[in-house]
């Protein structure tokens, strides 16, 4: 008796709503954790103009979100960048774009789970355990397993969990922002409070070089919103709702980041943040006590829930991209398996989790600084596949760009400008990451900065695997670039 073949890979249509997709897009960026990690370094670079840098960093994200929206309108594929770039630019570019997305999940999931564990322990007062690797590493692996299981058990369940976590996270940030601004304006801050000014939104206040360095940090805090679009096949009104959710996520992130950045600078001034730059991830812990007193656990909880939520949602793009690539014979067919009951990509989801957990354990055992360098290498992958998506949008819609001024602006010029900005930041990242002394480990690997080595090795492994797979499985490489199939009017 022969075994029955796998059922066709089809996710559960209409599993989540537009609101659910928006929440998942928000959660994937890990707002509280991301802001805690970068606000100190950005203030050290540009002072009170940190909100301006966050505003400027939003521009390329919005332009690329526009590309995601229009590409999703003609191709509702959970592989997003992989599928779209393949259609627009051919299989070679499409495959390496998909590889970049999958590897971001591998690099970041362990770090997010680690942060969730540490800040949960800090929230409940177990500070000693929060620095004990013998406790942290096993608990982090458990968190990865649990959050992966939630992803496999159903997209609806994932959405429900995210709704709870995002309310806790955003609610805590807003409480902190309101109290901080109120105390600053009332002259009740024990630190060097400043009066908020609209001039803080000027990204050029400290000059071009400072802005460039700040943008490299600022772009990181917006990354992840496209998880909403990776769920396109599982979202109601899949042709438009996921793209709109991605755009709305970036806008809500901008509002949140500006509000909290203004609150932090107004309450603490710039010297406090600059002096504590080395404790970037703990900045909310330091400020929480000053702003909220005995209620500082609220802010610690915000970072914990932020990292926990993002641990789950960051698995989504990598697992859905793996599914999409396997359906097109660009990866082993087994990765295209859909769980017959939960209708989620169980094999690709667990594979991402296992590789991410193994990477986390390996790098953590080397050193905590090596883990930070691994996280820093993300900027190369993020800028690469975002820029590739923006270019693909203009190429795929090339025959429709001149149909109207709005088409030219929103489908052509906007995404290309976003891609050029990100390509510029990618080049700057390569230059900056090559500075070994500026890395977390402070040492060079093979004469280069560790984050740059990690990023280059990941790309090189992808190219080697791509060529090997092309030789043995040429089916996917028979696909040819095309154009958008029907007129699209904005």
Which CATH C-level class is it?
Answer: Mainly Alpha
- Overall mean confidence score, pLDDT: 85
Largest sheet: none
CATH topology: Amino acid/polyamine transporter I
The second-level CATH architecture is: Up-down Bundle
Count of alpha/pi helices: 18
**Uncertain ranges:** 1-7
Number of domains: 1
What does this structure look like?
The protein is mainly α. The chain has a single domain (29-478), classed as Amino acid/polyamine transporter I. 70% of the residues lie in helices and 0% in strands. It contains 18 helices and no strands. The chain has helices spanning 18-28, 31-46, 50-74, 81-89, 91-123, 133-153, 155-185, 208-222, 227-230, 241-275, 283-292, 297-313, 315-327, 346-366, 368-376, 378-396, 405-433, 450-472. α5 runs antiparallel to α12 (297-313) and α6 (133-153) runs antiparallel to α14 (346-366). The termini are far apart. Residues 1-7 have low confidence and may be disordered.
Brief account:
The chain is mostly helical. The protein is built from 18 helices and no strands.
Summarize the topology:
Elements: H1 18-28, H2 31-46, H3 50-74, H4 81-89, H5 91-123, H6 133-153, H7 155-185, H8 208-222, H9 227-230, H10 241-275, H11 283-292, H12 297-313, H13 315-327, H14 346-366, H15 368-376, H16 378-396, H17 405-433, H18 450-472
Helix pairs in contact: 1-7, 1-10, 1-12, 2-8, 2-10, 2-12, 3-8, 3-10, 3-16, 3-17, 4-5, 4-16, 5-6, 5-12, 5-13, 5-14, 5-16, 5-18, 6-12, 6-14, 7-10, 7-12, 11-12, 13-14, 14-15, 15-18, 16-17
Give me some keywords for this one.
globular; Amino acid/polyamine transporter I; 18 helices; disordered N terminus; 490 residues; mainly alpha
């Amino acid at each position: 008796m022969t075994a029955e073949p796998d059922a066709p890979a089809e996710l559960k249509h209409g599993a989540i709503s537009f609101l659910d997709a928006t929440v998942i897009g928000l959660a994937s960026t890990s707002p509280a954790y991301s802001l805690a990690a970068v606000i100190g370094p950005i203030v050290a670079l540009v002072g009170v103009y940190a909100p301006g840098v966050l505003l400027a960093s939003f521009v390329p994200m919005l332009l690329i979100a526009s590309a995601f929206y229009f590409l999703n309108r003609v191709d509702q594929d959970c592989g997003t960048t992989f599928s779209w770039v393949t259609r627009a630019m051919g299989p070679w570019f499409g495959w390496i774009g998909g590889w970049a997305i999958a590897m971001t999940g591998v690099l970041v999931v362990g770090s997010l789970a680690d942060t969730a564990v540490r800040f949960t322990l800090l929230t409940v007062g177990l500070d000693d355990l929060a620095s004990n690797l013998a406790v942290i590493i096993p608990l982090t692996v458990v968190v990865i397993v649990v959050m992966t299981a939630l992803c496999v058990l159903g997209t609806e369940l994932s959405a429900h969990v995210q709704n709870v976590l995002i309310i806790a996270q955003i609610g805590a940030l807003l409480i902190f922002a309101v109290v901080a601004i109120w105390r600053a304006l009332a002259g009740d801050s024990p630190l060097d409070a400043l009066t908020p000014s609209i001039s803080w939104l000027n990204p050029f206040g400290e000059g071009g070089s400072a802005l460039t360095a700040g943008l490299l940090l600022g772009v990181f805090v917006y990354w992840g919103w496209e998880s909403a679009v990776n769920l396109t096949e599982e979202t109601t009104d899949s042709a438009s709702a996921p793209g709109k959710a991605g755009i709305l996520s970036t806008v809500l992130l901008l509002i949140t980041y500006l509000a909290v950045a203004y609150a932090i600078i107004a309450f603490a001034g710039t010297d406090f943040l600059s002096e504590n730059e080395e404790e970037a991830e703990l900045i909310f812990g330091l400020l929480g006590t000053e702003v909220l007193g005995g209620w500082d656990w609220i802010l610690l909880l915000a970072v914990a829930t932020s990292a926990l939520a993002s641990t789950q949602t960051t698995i989504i793009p990598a697992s859905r991209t793996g599914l999409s690539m396997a359906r097109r014979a660009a990866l082993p067919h087994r990765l295209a398996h859909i769980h017959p009951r939960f209708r989620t990509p169980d094999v690709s989801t667990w594979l991402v989790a296992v590789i991410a957990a193994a990477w986390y354990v390996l790098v953590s055992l080397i050193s905590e600084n090596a883990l930070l360098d691994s996280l820093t290498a993300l900027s190369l992958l993020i800028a690469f596949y975002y820029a590739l998506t923006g270019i693909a949008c203009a190429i795929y819609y090339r025959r429709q760009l001149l149909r109207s001024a709005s088409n030219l602006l929103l489908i052509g010029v906007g995404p290309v400008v976003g891609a050029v900005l990100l390509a510029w930041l990618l080049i700057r990242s390569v230059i900056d990451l090559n500075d070994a002394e500026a890395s977390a480990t402070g040492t060079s690997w093979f004469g280069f900065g560790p984050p740059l080595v990690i990023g280059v090795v990941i790309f090189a492994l992808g190219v080697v695997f791509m060529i090997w797979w092309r030789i043995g499985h040429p089916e996917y490489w028979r696909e040819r670039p095309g154009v958008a199939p029907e007129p699209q009017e904005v």
